[in-house]
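Practice problem: predict the structure.
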Amino acid sequence: MAPDILQFILYCVLLTVLAWPLGLYMARVFSGERTVLSPLLDPVEAGLARGCGVDLGKSNQHWTRYALAALAFNLAGWLVLYAILRLQGFLPFNPQGLPGLSPDLAFNTAVSFVTNTNWQAYGGETTMSYLSQMAGLTVQNFVSAGTGIAIGAAVIRGLAGRETRGIGNFWVDLARSILYLLLPLSILFGLFLVWQGVPQNLASYVDATTLEGARQTIAQGPAAAQIAIKQLGTNGGGFFNANSAVPYENPTPLANFFEMLAILLIPAAFPFMFGKMVKDMRQGAAIFAAMLVLFVAALGLTYGSEIQGNPIYAQLPIDQAAGSMEGKEVRFGTGNSALWATATTAASSGSVNSMHDSYTPLGMLAPMLQMQLGEIVFGGVGSGFYGMLAFVLLTVFIAGLMVGRTPEYLGKKIEAKEVKLSIIAFLVMPVGVLVFGAMAAVIPTALASVQDAGPHGLSEILYAYSSATGNNGSAFAGFGAGVPYHNTMQGIAMLLGRYVFIVPMLAIAGSLAAKKTVPASAGTFPTHTPLFVGLLVAVILIIGGLTFFPALALGPIAEQTAMLVGQTY
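Answer:
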């Protein structure tokens, strides 16, 4: 247990140490300032801008134009990816001769990767050709992550702006997010993964004979490139079916640790980027502190539940000295599994190195709740931060009511318009999880996908639609999602969770950018103190608790209570 705790501390310390300078670098990138990569990449950016008809000197868009550009680009990406998946059997780089996907699976997969969800209702190595993996999924891993980063930067500009109608240019922000951030980090991380033993080739699958004499097919392919961006971009879709539990995706303890760091690196850098761009690092540090507190609490609940094991097994001759090891790799153990599960659901990353379906009820509760809160701790690249800002505005509004004055944040009055838009964004998760989940719990076609009876069966449904609406992509392995009903409904939930959240947040950015700033006074509620951090954490937990606790009480909490008295279903 002590080595696990030390690793958790090391992880949090390294995450903070790496996120701080990366956030400052990102602030320079999205402020248009020169960086260490500018001599190399400025000509490339200028060439792309000329080709797209974008004037880098006059690139400010109103929030409506920014939103329309983002939506149009994502729609085009979906159409191209859908075509690639449907026509896969006729396209090159398909040495295994894999056929095209069915209409419902192609729809679900294309939506999944365009929305940065990477939910996979299929096995990667048995379904996708190399062309689909490279030109389809890996490309979307870059541009879907770039979309989130661009919108995160635009929302920050809205808060930092002073009496302006513009919040930036989507095309410029998208290009910079890929050129200056995602590509350099992915190249470095991809080379690191190849060094650790992850394959990167176009070879055919290898037939091998095991020691027992059985025949086994070992998948090959351009895996390292996709795994690098899937972690850094909080995408999560595995090249192989078992995701990061496969030695070819996660071959060594060192690779495991750095893949976990990669999941949260860019999301954790956003608060520091925010502090730099609004010219008050204390504001960014306060938001980072709130995120870290919630992350540590979720990690403590997950690890504490898993290390205690299952009390039902205590009556049997089963050794649980290492905690509950069902569904976990021996080479990772309880500590690395719990840390990965917490990190991947804190971000909008569906990558897993253990099976969440096998976790204890309370062990699965924290990852599920993190997704239901909108994955704001630390969240997806960009999306987690602007989701957290919605909670910040609600907290400021509540604090203003408590002290009896108009709420202010960064010198700008938070009025009814911003609060209403924040509430609209917040309601996305309840609709996707509770409404769509309720439908799945009563429609016979949907219920057929549920593997287990009792509370765990309900948890399967809640987890699936929390993951889809939260654009996460992780899953309970027992839930049979690859059927037309769930492929369609979860695809709709992914679209809801991505774009119905984006539009109101951009509207908030546009509204705040146009406002005047007012100087702080003796009655101004400070938003950089430990008191504000505590209030922000409380608002997040209270709102999340009031919204989702009844459903969680019937799922993992009921299952935990039954488990303590030895009841099974």
